[in-house]
Each structure stands twice: as C-alpha cells, then as structure tokens.
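Each letter names a residue; structure tokens follow underneath. Both lines appear below:
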Amino acid sequence: MSKRATTASSGAASDLATIAKDSVASASHSLRQFADHKGHFSLVRNFHLADALTIMNGVCGVSSIFAAARYLVDPTDTFQIYAALALPAAGFVFDALDGKVARWRKSSSMLGQELDSLADLISFGVAPAFLAFALGLRTTLDTAALTAFVCAGLARLARFNATVASIPKDATGKSKYFEGLPIPSTLGLVSYLAYLVWTKQTGNDLPFGTLSLLPGGGGDLHKLTLVYAAWAAAMVSKTLKVPKL
C-alpha cells in the first residue's frame, strides 16, 4: 500500500473517531443536563410539549389494553373491543404530532427519543398483540408467536435509536428511510382485526383455521398468527428499506 493510501486511511479513521467522540459527548451532555436538576419532580421539569404528546400516545396504548381486557371479561360489551381497536390509531395521531412539535419548538431531546420508543412499543406492539389474544389467538404457539412479535418491535425500536444518526437525512434533518417496517405499520393488523370484529369472525370463528403441529392438539397454531410472525420478521429486517413520508 502506498504512503498516500495509508495517509488517507489514517485520516478517514481519525475522522470517524472524531465523529463518534462528538456523538458520545453530545449524548453525555444531554444526560448531564437532565441530571443537573434537583428535587422530586425534576423529571417533570424536563418535559416539553412534544413529550406530553408522546405520553398521550402511551396513554392510548395502555387504555387499549385495558379495554380489550374488559372485553375478555364480558364479550357482549362490544363497545370495549371497538374502543380497544380505535385507541392505537389515536396513539398514532399523537405519535405523528410529537415529532413535528419537537422540530417546530426545537426541543428534541434524548428523553423525548426514549419516551417515543417506549410509547410506540405499548401502542403498536403490546396493544396489537393483546388485541389478537383477546379475539382468539390463545393457543400456546399463538402466544409464543405474539410474544416474539412484541420482542421484534422492541428490538426494532432499539436498533432505530442506535443507528438513526447514521441513516441519510433530507434537507429538514429527517431520515430518508426506515430500516425494516416501522412499528406503527402494525395498525394494518389492527385494522384487519377491526374487520374481523365487524364481520363477527372472532373466537372460534377466526378465518384460515389452525395448523396441528403436534399430536394430541398441544401444538395448535392459528394460521392468522403467521401474519404476526411475518410482520415481526419484516420489522427487524436489515435489507428492507421503507421510504419515509
């Protein structure tokens, strides 16, 4: 290798090290700034308007789970299941607004980023999985697949937080694409579940039937569960790039 190539490689490595150091320093500064506040309510004093919208996203997700649980207790109370199906969509409205408000007020923060991921996991990961359980996907293999679905959403959000700085940005600073399906895309599953409720295809009347993977009925799996499994794989995909609108 020539001296020129060696020098160029060393320079590139030095530049990368500087960028990494600056990123760590920036994150550390944000954390120190948060920790500098004293008192019992220092967390609340760190919240911005965008963070309040993010928390409302989480409220919608938790409320959806509670409504679905009430439906499990009393399946004749259809208001509860329709509310449970509608609340994740309401959460998406707050999820869309919080980023816009943060950029408008120039109040983006590490705290806001973490809040956003946690709220998304509840509204678009846990809530859709519990809705599927409430409507009939309740075998052992069904629940294992639904658990994997939630964990895939968790991993996808963690990867986003870890790699968002390296994804190409547009002129406004927004990432040009998502790696893997973004977790709010699970509203597509929620919409299909709403269709099944409307057409009374729930419980023992779920479409597509079941697969018996073990003798004796201990390995039953609803074929509808495979859609959740495929969605989970798409969320954690590295090669699937979804343009950001």
About this structure: The beta strands are 177-179, 210-212, 220-222, 241-243. Residues 179 and 241 are 5 Å apart (CA to CA). The longest strand covers residues 177-179. The first helix runs from residue 3 to 35.
